[in-house]
Model the fold of this input.
Amino acid sequence: MVDPIGLAIALLGCVVAALPAGIGSAIGIGYVARVASGVLAEDPKKFGSLFILVALPGTQGFYGFLGAFLGMMKLGVLGNLVPITPWQGVQMFAACLPVGLAGLVTAMWQGRVCAAGAELVAKRASEGTKGVIFGALVETYAVLGLLATIFLQMGVKIGS
Done:
């Protein structure tokens, strides 16, 4: 039998993996999209250079979704639920925190970095790659948050 308290805590962890990362991605994309829209108003030909900068902060939302999905798979949500104690639920909750929190913070900062990259493209379109590289440096810490969640989830012993 599945303990409803343990399952609820673990599923709340899955929410904490996905929701903050998705919110951070929306905010980060908003930062850079506002700048990119201003640049495009002056020169629509720069869309290709700006698209990657606008899309880059959105990856954290995908990382959060992946962390949540892997957690739900471990719990058997898409099939037969596995037995889980409240303590195991707390462990799963804690395992989901890194990707959610790292996704929230890095997506917002990455949006600011990419907005600066969009300003660079406005003045020197050929230098857009440098803005993407700076944004990718922030991305590194989102990836580390995802890896931490995956490794921590692997360490939670659930089931018989």
User: Anything to note?
Assistant: Residues 4-42 form the longest helix (39 residues). Residues 73 and 79 are 8 Å apart (CA to CA). The helical segments are 4-42, 47-55, 59-75, 86-123, 128-155.
